[in-house]
Amino acid sequence: MRDALRGLTTRGRSFLAAGVAVFVAAIVLVEQDLMRIAVLLMALPLVSAWVVARTRYRLSSSRRLSAARTPAGQESAVTLRLDNISRLPSGLLLVEDRVPYVLGSRPRFVLDRIEPRGRREVTYVVRSDVRGRYQLGPLTLRLTDPFGMCELQRAFSSRDTLIVTPQVQQLPPAALAGQWAGSGDSRARSVASAGEDDAGTREYRQGDDLRRVHWRSTARLGQLMVRREEQPWQSRCTILLDSRTVAHAGEGPASSFEWAVSATASIGVHLMRGGYQVRLLTDTGDKLVSADQDPSSVGSDFEGLLLDSLAVLASSSNDSCRDAATTLRRGGGDGLLIAVLGSIDPEEARLFAQLRHGSTVAVAVLLDTSTWMSRRGREPRHDYDGSAALLRASGWRVVQARAGDSIAGLWPEAGRRQHDSELVQVETVGKR
Questions:
Q1: For residue 250, is it left (φ>0), alpha (ψ between -120 and 50) or beta?
Q2: Diameter over CA atoms, the chain
Q3: Per residue in 84-115, pLDDT tens?
Q4: Can you tell me the distance from the alpha carbon of 55 to that of 90, in angstroms, rounded to the nearest whole number?
Q5: pLDDT at 378 over 60
């Protein structure tokens, strides 16, 4: 009741003040008729406040999203439902749902009285061009009485989450020779990854049993090699996303960083639907998602995990990609390697060139950040042609991307072989 009295409107306070004034005058003048008028003037706002205070506990609400995960730039419908669970009709209701400003203005609705055991549903649409995780709610109500004497605001506690994911484009098929690469010791995989003499070997890692050392491979390659453990065969792919602030240009949804995030999401979803176990890394060396986090390794659940991780990914303050290179070396570069890179200098290009060895299929989506509008007061570091040439010389397949290009249109270039040695390896695997 105390909160209801604080919610008295200007009209309610005026009636209460007039009632007090008439009450004092009735005492001074000893007029019973004035006393009756004073009681009426004071009782009307007080009774209205009591009715409004009683109504606040008789409503229940629920919120339903047409899609809890929606791509950037697309709309999602939100339906609010109010139920009057009391035996008395409600008064006039002003409904307002709290939403972040990036989703649009706050939706407001005026609802007439809701009959006992009745319900009302209202729907509004949210849309964001900026990916992220957003909270919807809580729902607030302004309860008023029929006379406009009191207005009380109450909020429900329930909230819902809307995830705005990067835009995912459907990619056309590309002839990637990494289909044979995986985690098992099948004959096709071993030949494709290490060659006939080194079937089922990998670099020595700290903690490996020395009894598993493969001395023939060690002598030929000049580094300690061990035999692989038997594991179920499965194609694998590692995707590296360059999220460094210094490597990208542009602002907001039109920046090269957002283009790279969208391209990464499109590639990841495309490969997962093709049966790959996908691991996603950033330039910091952090593993955002991995097939080890999903028992099935592929499927809609893991696809959602990938999109959710990219939805909240922010740019990093790193100056180089050395941390990511170290992670790739320690964790093994088995299978297909795809790097979505911003602006890199020749030194960083040489760093990536060292990550490809043997017949490993490596694809670099290299962004020409000079074609994006640069940030105010800072030009991006850029040696595009030299970096692309260094990567190609080391056996990388380079997909050149510029502002206005779509990853769907560029993806077929990832299937073009750039070295005769790579073609020979794939043909050998096919014959066997």
A1: left
A2: 118
A3: 888 877 777 889 999 999 999 999 999 888 88
A4: 7
A5: no
| DSSP type of residue 201 | E
Gap between the Cα atoms of 221 and 206, Å rounded: 18
Question: The pTM is what?
Answer: 0.75
* Residues 149-166 pLDDT 10s: 888 888 899 999 999 999
What b/e readout covers 264-282, taking b as 16+ CB neighbours within 10 angstroms?
bbbbbbbbbebebbbbbbb
For residue 233, the model assigns a pLDDT of 52
CB atoms within 10 A of CB 132: 17
Q: Which two tokens stand for residue 288?
A: 């955002």
- Which residues have a Cβ under 8 Å from the Cβ of 181 and sit 6 or more positions away? 189, 192, 193, 235, 236, 334, 335, 336, 360, 361
101: three-class secondary structure by DSSP: helix
- Rounded distance, CA 352 to CA 337, Å? 11
Tell the residue number behind the tokens 């249109």, with chain if given.
409
